[in-house]
């Protein structure tokens, strides 16, 4: 109200009331520009923190999933590549935030690589979900299609399809010469509407539909468990069968948790991205500010999708949680040893007793493996007693 009374007085003083809408529109644009700069500065720190936290979590997931107790399975292969793709997406987001000088080639490269790695990260989650569905529904097909080699080949095929598709479509959809003033890679006017619809469908919509196969996986596990309990087969099952069923249940719980997080983070972002096809045709200031906040929040949600998988692995996977604790313990012992031995130059510092016993047991096992006759002599002594 104060703004419009000020404009009315100003227009009346110069004798031209037609300047009121023009001044009001200029004031709105100026306020939106100031608000956008402040909002960009705030979200810059938020996105930078998410990128750093996500990179740390994904690297830790790579270390934990490739431990001896968790690797050599098809699921570990998929989780490894998904962590690599998520890390690449977060790294590219951080590079886009830290780009001080706008260069056209760098901006186009960042857009292209972000699209490729985002596509691969989302579709690896789809592949591992379908793989779990096959493994639970048909154990016979699981032996053929759910192996480590098949998992690697499927990821290689996915990356090849992504590179060929995006390399073909990118110069057609985007104007590689860009905007000479802003030096940014812009979308061609003929493809702006199509990109707003097709890209979220390929990146998020179709994966959302295929991830619904989790319901069938959970249903198959529940039905199998009820059959075992009703027929009292648990007492007759071998220990290996019980362990394999337990592993499948833990993997399924992990995947269901990650898939729910995928829906939680990507569905609002997809809806916001599609609704932004039609820009607002009003000049109401608080609504324009609200739309800017919602648009920036959608970017944050997409980054959280790539940054929080490690948290859900730890919350839902007992073996993954145990491996994480073991990794932290080993890392803390090594850092402490490095600090005392090389920074404080304490040559008398030794590993803790429990670590020495663990290394001694490893060396004893290796010695027995290298000299099998020693193991034979111990067996003979046991028989003679």
Automatic annotation (TrEMBL):
<keyword id="KW-1133">Transmembrane helix</keyword>
<feature type="transmembrane region" description="Helical">
    <location>
        <begin position="153"/>
        <end position="176"/>
    </location>
</feature>
<feature type="transmembrane region" description="Helical">
    <location>
        <begin position="251"/>
        <end position="275"/>
    </location>
</feature>
<keyword id="KW-0675">Receptor</keyword>
<keyword id="KW-0297">G-protein coupled receptor</keyword>
<feature type="transmembrane region" description="Helical">
    <location>
        <begin position="110"/>
        <end position="130"/>
    </location>
</feature>
<keyword id="KW-0472">Membrane</keyword>
<dbReference type="GO" id="GO:0016020">
    <property type="term" value="C:membrane"/>
</dbReference>
<comment type="similarity">
    <text>Belongs to the G-protein coupled receptor 1 family.</text>
</comment>
<dbReference type="InterPro" id="IPR000276">
    <property type="entry name" value="GPCR_Rhodpsn"/>
</dbReference>
<feature type="transmembrane region" description="Helical">
    <location>
        <begin position="77"/>
        <end position="98"/>
    </location>
</feature>
<feature type="domain" description="G-protein coupled receptors family 1 profile">
    <location>
        <begin position="57"/>
        <end position="313"/>
    </location>
</feature>
<feature type="transmembrane region" description="Helical">
    <location>
        <begin position="197"/>
        <end position="222"/>
    </location>
</feature>
<protein>
    <recommendedName>
        <fullName>G-protein coupled receptors family 1 profile domain-containing protein</fullName>
    </recommendedName>
</protein>
<dbReference type="GO" id="GO:0004930">
    <property type="term" value="F:G protein-coupled receptor activity"/>
</dbReference>
<dbReference type="InterPro" id="IPR052954">
    <property type="entry name" value="GPCR-Ligand_Int"/>
</dbReference>
<dbReference type="Pfam" id="PF00001">
    <property type="entry name" value="7tm_1"/>
</dbReference>
<keyword id="KW-0807">Transducer</keyword>
<feature type="transmembrane region" description="Helical">
    <location>
        <begin position="41"/>
        <end position="65"/>
    </location>
</feature>
<dbReference type="InterPro" id="IPR017452">
    <property type="entry name" value="GPCR_Rhodpsn_7TM"/>
</dbReference>
<keyword id="KW-0812">Transmembrane</keyword>
């Amino acid at each position: 109200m104060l703004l419009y009374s000020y404009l009315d007085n100003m227009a009346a003083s110069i004798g031209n009331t037609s300047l009121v809408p023009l001044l009001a529109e200029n004031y709105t644009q100026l306020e939106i520009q100031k608000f956008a700069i402040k909002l960009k500065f705030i979200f810059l720190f938020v996105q930078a923190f998410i990128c750093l936290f996500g990179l740390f979590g994904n690297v830790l997931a790579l270390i934990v999933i490739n431990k001896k107790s968790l690797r050599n399975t098809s699921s570990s292969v998929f989780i490894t590549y998904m962590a690599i793709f998520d890390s690449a997406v977060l790294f590219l987001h951080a590079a886009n935030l830290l780009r001080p000088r706008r260069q056209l080639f760098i901006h186009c490269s960042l857009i292209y690589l972000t699209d490729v790695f985002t596509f691969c990260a989302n579709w690896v989650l789809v592949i591992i979900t379908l793989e779990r569905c096959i493994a639970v529904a048909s154990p016979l097909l699981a032996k053929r299609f759910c192996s480590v080699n098949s998992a690697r080949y499927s990821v290689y095929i996915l990356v090849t399809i992504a590179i060929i598709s995006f390399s073909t479509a990118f110069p057609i959809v985007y104007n590689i010469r860009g905007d000479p003033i802003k030096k940014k890679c812009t979308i061609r006017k003929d493809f702006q509407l199509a990109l707003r619809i097709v890209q979220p469908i390929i990146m998020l919509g179709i994966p959302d539909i295929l991830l619904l196969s989790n319901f069938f996986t959970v249903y198959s596990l529940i039905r199998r468990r009820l059959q075992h309990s009703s027929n009292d087969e648990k007492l007759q099952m071998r220990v290996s069968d019980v362990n394999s069923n337990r592993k499948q249940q833990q993997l399924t719980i992990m995947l269901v948790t990650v898939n729910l997080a995928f829906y939680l983070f990507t569905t609002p972002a997809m809806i916001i991205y599609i609704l932004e096809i039609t820009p607002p045709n009003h000049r109401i200031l608080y609504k324009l500010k609200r739309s800017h906040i919602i648009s920036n929040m959608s970017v944050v949600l997409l980054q959280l999708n790539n940054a929080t998988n490690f948290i859900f692995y730890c919350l839902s996977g007992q073996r993954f949680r145990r491996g994480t604790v073991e990794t932290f313990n080993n890392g803390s012992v090594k850092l402490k040893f490095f600090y005392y031995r090389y920074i404080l130059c304490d040559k008398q510092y030794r590993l803790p007793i429990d670590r020495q016993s663990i290394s001694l047991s490893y060396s004893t096992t290796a010695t027995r493996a290298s000299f099998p006759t020693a193991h034979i002599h111990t067996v003979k002594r046991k028989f003679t007693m």
